[in-house]
Each structure stands twice: as C-alpha cells, then as structure tokens.
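Quick question: what would this complex look like in 3D?
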Amino acid sequence: EPEVTQTPSHQVTQMGQEVILRCVPISNHLYFYWYRQILGQKVEFLVSFYNNEISEKSEIFDDQFSVERPDGSNFTLKIRSTKLEDSAMYFCASSESGRALSETQYFGPGTRLLVL
Amino acid sequence: QKEVEQNSGPLSVPEGAIASLNCTYSDRGSQSFFWYRQYSGKSPELIMSIYSNGDKEDGRFTAQLNKASQYVSLLIRDSQPSDSATYLCAVNTDAGKSTFGDGTTLTVKP
C-alpha cells in the first residue's frame, strides 16, 4: 500500500541553525501538507501546497518557514533559523487533489525535531 | 472558544465495554469530519470519516454526526486493550486544511 515517507525520523539541531525536513508524498497525490505537534499538544496545521505554490498557511508559518517541491517526488519544509519552540514532531501529509473537503489526508510517520 | 473541542480525558473503560468519544466544532461551514487514532510518538491514523448527518458504521466503530448541534462522536464497541490510544477529532472547513482537537486519551483495561 502506498504511503507517505519522511526523513530523517529524528533531527537534533542547535538554536539558530537551518533544518530541512523531507517528505515523499504518495506518488499520484497532488496536494501536500505540513503539520506540527508540540509534545503533549494538538496537531496544528502549518501549510498546504498545490501546483508548486502555497495554497494556505497558518499564523505559525512565518518568514522562518518555507516549503519547496525541488523535484517530482520530494516535498521539503525548511526552517531558516530554528528556535527552541520549534521543537516538535513534524508531519507531512498528502491527498489526491485537495479540492474536496471530504478528501482524506494520509500522514507520514513524522520527524521529531529537537532544538537545543 | 476552541475551534474543535473534545471531551477531556483521560477516559478509562473495561475490556468489552463501549467507549464514547465526543467532539464539538464552532464553524457551521464545516463539512467533513474525521476521527484519527494516535499512539504515543506515532502519526495520526485515520479511523473514520463522516460527511452527512446520522450514523456511519465500520466494524466496531460508529461515527455519529449532528450538524445542527455541531457535534460529532465516535463509539467503539467491544473495546480492546489495543484500542488504548489518543483519539483525535479533525474538521475540514477549507479544502486543504484540517483543524484538530486536543485529543482524548482512552485506556481500555483488561
């Protein structure tokens, strides 16, 4: 069964460093998402991406964040200058078209980011 | 008011009992509702989706939706210890964005 994959599974970085989290969405999916979950808190929407541009973003997704689809398979989240409060689990998700409200989003296993 | 609110846990039920999980949402424009199960340290796993008022059954799981009351619930029949997890309610108002509740932690005791 096709699945969303994410690398790395764990990332430890120093405050102020740049990190890139990588995702490979399900191959025929067109809509991609990033969510984050701070330990013990709820899953929060960061950004959605369609047709090589951001479709929607939350207040959390400020200028320190960016997303990119550098090739036909990868979808990346970059945090330019990490802060302690960026420590969280980051989930990538994808859906077939993203146009239907009813559409299921498939989540990857997550990358646990720890900023020291 | 939170956009998506779930009954505070933790919830503990004996094995074989029915577990009832509740969720309310604030945006009347919400059209799609999802229940996810999340084990500690893992990603959300979709259990049920529901879009129309009424009940939807899938095995031991039943989702119930009442749009007039802005309420969605999940019933788990014949609860098993393996059902012990955090259950997340998610609501789609805009295509491309799911809003999650805080989750309810369920423990099924053997």
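Answer marked as accepted. Chain B touches chain A at residues 31-32, 34, 41-46, 49, 51, 88, 90, 92-103 (CB under 8 Å).
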